[in-house]
């Protein structure tokens, strides 16, 4: 494929599937279990039908929006994904530079291959958020939060849907394990304390046996920047997160990578928006591949979407310029879809733009 062949995010996905090493492919594109949820994330977007309106005033049209008082070129953020060094030698430095160039916030993973202090210093123009994986010792989790804020991250994203690892047969078959580089942010922390008693191997593997609503609330209380909870699918959990101090919610099933056979994230979104009402930022991820998907997510109640795998596909294909190109493609497609449904601004997108007639 030449550069001119990359016309859509799917083109980056196909190039990745055809050329990436088997282990990396299994890690990026795989899902948990039988991959049912991973596939349904995509199918659920494909099954939604837009219902456009015509002849509106589109002259002030733009996908630009804002979250927590800061501007975004489009309602799209880079989802947290581990260890970008597996895709490109520059790792997160490349992704963050592309994020800055395209006006896209990037949520940096706890398992990034670059220390967060080094990343914020190297790419000061990027709007970087930091994703928190709870650490075995709660004091270390709090330390990670403090370090990210001190380094300049503008929000924290606490991932709450992975208390243990998912069943990842594709990775097991390919013999894939995350390399030591994924520990860049975690080298200062103590190894997990020995667990007493006859607990099962699975429950012994809890990332933090102590992390419950109260501890998650403490993270919010101690943070000077907004804390979002990522990985919520149930409206009651969205309400509990809000009560615990979450400034926003990411409706997500982790790209179908932790628990298989849960609903597609886009299907879980409307009930969560209804429960929270307007005013609380709600983001969604899992299966966003087209500008039409961005419009559908906003129509069903999201303020913005996160983009996971396509960023990694583009990083693998062409490093920083690949990611910048992929993000620009999605921004352009989003604006085209907005214009064609008759929405000049993200705020004009509502549920009336989703077809509710017979299929
Ligand atoms: C992820 N995801 C993820 N989430 C998180 O909170 N912390 C992490 O370190 C990672 N790591 C990670 C690695 C890889 C290879 C993938 C594909 C995903 C999940 C990610 O943030 C997001 O929820 C999904 O990727 C969204 O779905 P799509 O866009 O990939 O379909």
Describe this structure in words.
By secondary structure, the chain is α/β, with parallel strands linked by helices. The protein has a single domain (3-188, 203-353), classed as Alpha-Beta Barrel (TIM Barrel), CATH 3.20.20. The protein contains 13 helices and 10 strands. It has helices at 9-19, 22-29, 36-47, 92-102, 116-122, 138-151, 169-174, 201-204, 213-222, 235-244, 265-276, 291-299, 309-341, and strands at residues 65-67, 70-72, 76-78, 106-108, 128-132, 156-159, 227-232, 248-251, 282-285, 304-307. The strands form 2 sheets. An 8-stranded parallel sheet has the order 3-10-9-8-7-6-5-4. It has a two-stranded antiparallel ribbon with strand order 1-2. The radius of gyration is 20 Å and the shape is globular. The structure holds ligand FNR. Ligand FNR binds at residues 27-28, 41, 79-82, 109, 111, 131, 159, 230, 252, 254-255, 257, 285-288, 306-309, 312. InterPro entries: Aldolase_TIM, Alpha-hydoxy_acid_DH_FMN, FMN-dep_DH, FMN_HAD. Its cofactor is FMN. One of its GO terms (molecular function) is FMN binding. The active site is at residue 254. Glyoxylate binds at residues 133, 168, 254, 257.
């Amino acid at each position: 494929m030449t550069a001119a062949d990359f016309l859509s995010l799917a083109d980056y996905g196909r190039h990745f599937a055809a050329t990436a090493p088997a282990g990396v492919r299994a890690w990026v594109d795989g899902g948990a279990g039988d991959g049912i949820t991973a596939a349904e994330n995509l199918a659920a977007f494909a099954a939604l039908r837009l219902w456009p309106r015509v002849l509106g005033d589109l002259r002030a049209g733009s996908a630009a929006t804002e979250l927590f008082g800061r501007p975004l070129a489009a309602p799209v953020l880079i989802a947290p994904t581990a260890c970008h060094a597996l895709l490109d030698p520059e790792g997160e430095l490349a992704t963050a530079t592309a994020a800055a160039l395209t006006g896209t916030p990037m949520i940096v993973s706890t398992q990034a291959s670059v220390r967060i202090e080094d990343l914020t210093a190297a790419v000061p123009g990027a709007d970087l958020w930091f994703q928190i994986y709870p650490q075995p010792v709660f004091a270390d989790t709090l330390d990670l939060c403090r370090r990210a804020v001190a380094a300049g991250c503008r929000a924290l994203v606490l991932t709450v849907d992975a208390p243990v690892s998912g069943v990842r047969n594709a990775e097991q078959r390919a013999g894939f394990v995350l390399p030591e580089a994924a520990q860049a942010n975690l080298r200062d922390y103590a190894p997990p304390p020995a667990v007493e008693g006859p607990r099962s191997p699975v429950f012994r593997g809890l990332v933090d046996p102590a992390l419950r609503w109260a501890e998650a609330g403490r993270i919010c209380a101690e943070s000077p920047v907004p804390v979002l909870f990522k990985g919520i699918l149930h409206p009651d959990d969205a309400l509990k997160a809000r009560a615990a101090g979450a400034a926003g919610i990411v409706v997500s099933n982790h790209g179908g990578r932790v628990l298989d056979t849960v609903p597609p994230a886009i299907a879980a979104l409307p009930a969560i928006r209804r429960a929270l009402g307007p005013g609380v930022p709600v983001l969604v991820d899992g299966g966003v591949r087209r500008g039409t998907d961005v419009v559908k997510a906003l129509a069903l109640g999201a303020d913005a979407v996160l983009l996971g795998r396509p960023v990694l596909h583009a990083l693998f294909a062409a490093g920083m310029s690949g990611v910048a190109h992929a993000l620009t493609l999605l921004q352009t497609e989003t604006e085209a879809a907005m214009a064609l449904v008759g929405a000049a601004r993200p705020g004009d997108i509502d549920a009336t733009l989703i077809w509710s007639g017979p299929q």
